[in-house]
Amino acid sequence: MQDHLNDKEIVEQILAKKKELGEKLLILTHHYQRKEIVELGHYRGDSFGLSQKAAADKAARFIVFCGVHFMAESAEILSQPHQTVQIPDLEAGCWMADMADIYIVENAWEEITSITGEDSVMPIVYMNSDAALKAFCGHRGGAVCTSSNCPTAFRWALSERDKILFFPDQHLGRNTGNQMGIPAEEMIVWDPHKPLGGNTRDDIKKAKVILWDGYCLVHTRFRVEHALKMRERFPEAKIVVHPECTQEVVALADAVGSTSFIVKYVESAPPNTTIIIGTEVNLIERVALENPDKKVLVLHHSLCPNMFKINLKNLLWALDHVGQVNVVKVPEEIKADARMALDRMLALEPKTTPAKRGDLVKERQVAGVAVS
Ligand code: SF4
Fold first, then answer.
1. Cβ pair 160, 348 in contact under 8 A
2. How many angstroms separate the alpha carbon of residue 83 from the centre of ligand 1?
3. For the purposes of burial, counting CB atoms within 10 Å of the CB of 102, is it exposed (0-12), middle (13-18) or buried (19 or more)?
4. Which fold has domain 97-212?
5. Residue of the CA atom closest to atom 8 of ligand 1
6. Which helix (H) or strand (E) segment is 44 a member of?
7. What per-residue confidence (pLDDT) applies to 1?
8. How far does residue 93's CA lie from ligand 1's centre (Å)?
9. pTM to 2 decimals?
10. Identical fold at 7-93+307-330 and 224-298?
């Protein structure tokens, strides 16, 4: 890596690489990336939106995903044969994704379906998961979902089968169940370290939703006392949180939604509104900068160290060895099943016209952010 360069020199070299590679290069940046990385990307967005952009951009030959590993994997699953997907740091994983390993999920499935029968349980996997788990779902008729379309996926699943096995994030699953009016006693938690997940056979038979005992450490740092304290200090403020927060925190918020929802919520709020956000701090700081007519505050400081592993140095290193280093490859047999689960999710989505690269440029100019 180019350790002798300062940040300004690195940015200049990245911009030169972008110019040299032109349409062949596509840099995707997740909303939780550092500001300087987001400013260098062609698109910013949430994990699935970015993968769709990659799949729709046929001219791109080299996709560099500035996010965590499962996101780069999803882009690879949806990519075209002529495209390669790279991640600037292969160590940028996701704690939540690591909480549901394919072998323990397979064991859980066997235990559950030995009681309920295979045809009555629909596996739904959150986007924040390894490709092997997406393939597990695809193979068994299930689908992937994101934090924005989880209710749609749940409704579809319950129209097809009696129960849902949802993993890895119990909080997104529970908040979605609450939103749909599913009684608390019909949502059980599956602890993979206990026999029958810590449940009785009867609990499993009665459950509508079986929630994997996983969680995001970044979003479960938000606590009821943070919401109460901020309400007291800013009684006029709106509180908006991500659905990976606990149901107790969600209950105290004015709105709940995905990262893209939160960005739009702030953009469409009237000037001078005070908005307190419960999600990853890099997104909040950027949204605050881009909406100077509003007061944007953190519910509590919470940073994702995995997202933070991507920096200017390793981005430049990936571009210096474009298509060669840190290439993310999903084995073909996993890819086919995982793609089925992703395609099922896509079939549940309303059709949208993919944005062109220029749309993002316009969007950023409006927000007053430097565009390369
Ligand atoms: S914020 Fe949470 S879910 Fe997202 S990458 Fe970090 S640990 Fe994973």
1. no
2. 26
3. middle
4. Rossmann fold (3.40.50)
5. 94
6. strand 43-45
7. 66
8. 8
9. 0.91
10. yes
**CATH no. of 7-93+307-330:** 3.40.50.10800
Report the greatest alpha carbon distance in the chain.
64
- Which CATH number among 3.40.1790.10, 3.40.50.10840, 3.40.50.10800, 3.30.450.40 corresponds to the domain 224-298? 3.40.50.10800
Q: How many CB atoms lie within 10 A of CB 311?
A: 19
Of 96, 264, 107, residue with least CA distance to 173: 96
Nearest in space to 32 (alpha carbons), one of 11, 47, 18, 42: 47
Tell me the domain boundaries of the chain.
Answer: 7-93+307-330, 97-212, 224-298
Which residue puts its alpha carbon closest to atom 6 of ligand 1?
Answer: 304
Of the CA atoms within 13 Å of residue 324, those in its CB half-sphere come to: 5
Question: Can you read off the two tokens belonging to residue 2?
Answer: 């180019």
What residue type is assigned to position 258 of the chain? S
Surface-to-core class of residue 82, CB atoms within 10 Å of its CB (0-12 exposed, 13-18 middle, 19+ buried): exposed
Residue whose CB lies within 8 A of the most ligand 1 atoms, among 99, 217, 308, for a mutation test? 217
Rounded to the nearest angstrom, the distance between the alpha carbon of 213 and the centre of ligand 1 is 15
- Which residues contact ligand 1 via a Cβ below 6 A? 68, 94-96, 128, 216-218, 280, 304, 306-307
Give the per-residue pLDDT at 356: 47
Distance of CA 317 to the CA centre of its chain: 25
Report CA-CA distances (Å) from 333 to 32, 102, 104, 131, 209.
31, 15, 20, 11, 29
- CA 362 vs. chain centroid, Å, equals 24
From 125, 127, 262, 306, give the residue whose CB has the most ligand 1 atoms within 8 Å, as the site to mutate: 306
pLDDT at 49: 84
Cα 190 to middle of ligand 1, angstroms: 20
Token couple for 316: 């430049």
Could you report the average pLDDT of every consecutive run of 10 residues in the chain (372 residues)?
85 97 96 96 89 85 97 93 96 96 96 95 97 98 94 97 98 98 98 96 98 98 98 98 98 96 97 98 97 98 97 98 98 95 85 44 31 26
